[in-house]
């Protein structure tokens, strides 16, 4: 087996493409693990990732701008907003009960349940 046979094998089986995608995955995971401690304090991390994956400057600017506007309006960063949304409230149970009864009433009117 000579070098030309190996080159032909690699071209046919796209080994280089698969190796490149695997290398990209490993580097991406390494960067995520490395920067996970400072991800909340870095306002540009999301837009930089967006630009790196899409190459679209408009989308990058929009991502950065919306993050800044939400932070300015709420006074909280993204992590704090998500944490607040996910916390269960006492009013949620009453709202869920109301919605459930309304859905059942509507289904009865539409003859979907007996």
Structural features, described:
With 114 residues, the chain is mainly α. The chain has a domain at 76-114. Helix content is 78%, strand content 0%. The protein has 6 helices and no strands. The chain has helices spanning 3-13, 15-35, 45-54, 57-74, 78-86, 90-109. The radius of gyration is 25 Å and the shape is elongated. The model has no long low-confidence stretch (mean pLDDT 75).
Count of beta strands: 0
Q: From the alpha-carbon coordinates, what is the Rg to the nearest angstrom?
A: 25 Å
Low-confidence stretches: none
What is the mean predicted local confidence, pLDDT?
75
The major sheet is characterized as: none
Q: Into which percent range does the helicity of residues fall?
A: over 70%
| Estimated share of beta-strand residues | under 5%
Globular, elongated, flat, extended or rod-shaped: what is the shape?
elongated
Helix-strand pattern: HHHHHH
Decide which structural class fits the backbone: mainly alpha
The N- to C-terminal Cα distance equals: 75 Å
How large is the count of helical segments? Answer: 6
Keywords:
single chain, 114 residues, mainly alpha, 6 helices, 78% helix
